[in-house]
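Supplementary Text 2. Reproducibility record for the structural model of the 531-residue chain.

All settings were left at their defaults, and a single model was retained for analysis rather than an ensemble. We include the record here because the model underlies the residue-level annotations in Supplementary Table 4.
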Amino acid sequence: MNNVRVRFAPSPTGPLHIGGVRTALFNYLFAKKHSGTFILRIEDTDQTRYVANAEQYIIDALNWCNIPFDEGPGKNEKFGPYRQSERKHIYKKYAEELIAKGKAYYAFDTAEDLDFHRKDHEEKGKTFIYNWHNREKLTNSISLSKEEVEKRIVNGDNYVVRFKMYEPESENEIIEVNDIIRGNVSFKKEILDDKILFKSDGMPTYHLANIVDDHLMEISHVIRGEEWLPSLPLHIALYEAFNWKAPEFAHLPLILKPVGKGKLSKRDGDKLGFPVFPLEYKNEATGEISRGYKEDGYFADAFINMLALLGWNPGTEQEIFALEDLCKTFTLERVSKSGAKFSPDKTKWFNQQYMMLKTDEELAEFFVPILKKHVIANEMKQPLEVERLPRCYAPRNDNEEFNMEYITKVVSSIKERATFVYDFWDLSSFFFEAPTQYDEKAAKKQWKEDTSELMKELISVISTIEDFTSHTIELIVKEWITSKEIGFGKVMQPFRLSLVGAMKGPHLFDIAEMIGKEETLSRIKKAIDTL
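Retained model, structure tokens:
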């Protein structure tokens, strides 16, 4: 496939919904598969809904997702500018070209006039459609004389330019298009309205600007959401009116609510507790902050993998795809026609899978900022006895430095229980600080009348161990328990409670080895005194 050029063309009216991100992703994957170009175009013709920080949000979101555009605002502006508001001088010429060809016309109808006709039709049980049925009865350059039209324009009367969608007996009644995803789709022209192409404020509507820009930017494939499918006949008719070759079209299915009915919305996320935006977004007008996948702790590659499988499947059982693999595997022919149900739980599953694919060293680096925040906060409350935990935390000069080898071992021992990196602290805090309190239910169940005496004996046993490794500690402690002819639970459960503060954590003797002999003994003594 030669010279593939696709575009993602969002409106800067707010944060980028994950449905928009998926559209961008599918465009990106298609472009990269065919060694093509992925373009970002900002469609800001509707100035009434423009949000100042929305464009930068869109760019930041694409960059975080690792699907940056090849051409766009401020980057490789071969066909620039890439903001429609900066291209408005272009569109009027094309609107006038259509008028000159008899494919469009000036319409001077006021809002009051149109409202009157709508209400009149409603009273008669009909629907008002501005098209070939009534255009000659309305106030436009078809019903008015040439002189009257020129006079109105000179006088500065408000007007719009409408497209002449259908003319009886002079055109085919059916528009047929082969959609890459949906196959052959057809539309009856006679039931379609004469859409506005150019507005009285001097700005084009989406329909005209979209077609003109796609043509001038040499777009080869238009990959967009199915909500634009009803606009397809107009867009095809416009290409025909200009005598331009139309790009190929592919209309993506909706991302549905978790319950399966209806389009996924921000309200669904707010109600069920998951983000619908890639990045956190602050509404400058209201101060409302909307959650983002990045800030919620998701890996960008996990987020992208999840989105890729919403509406597309590779034809195999494989679910985990690196971005490079997606670029090689993706085809529009395997995109579903039907909507794809969003699953918050499946999204978390993807994140956990990607966590397991990362090295312990990578995860340790991610963990350090979280660890530093907790350790330093606790140090401010109660200074750490640095000699206690020399392996994990050792301030040097004025800089807090962490032993990455120790942190890496910690991460390795707890990562399988985590979904997000921010889970690490709750799963591993006992590796970095002694418990200050003990799980009440566990203490009541595990700490019996004779437990303190057993723990004192355990202290004596542990004190004699020279090779303080997990294997050796386990061997000696279990031999001692066996010699006493008591159940292992009578010792092991309160031992874990002493070191961790709760009945959780990885292999108990691994914990003891990692925090060291002195700290292990100290924690058992503290538990005896407290419990």
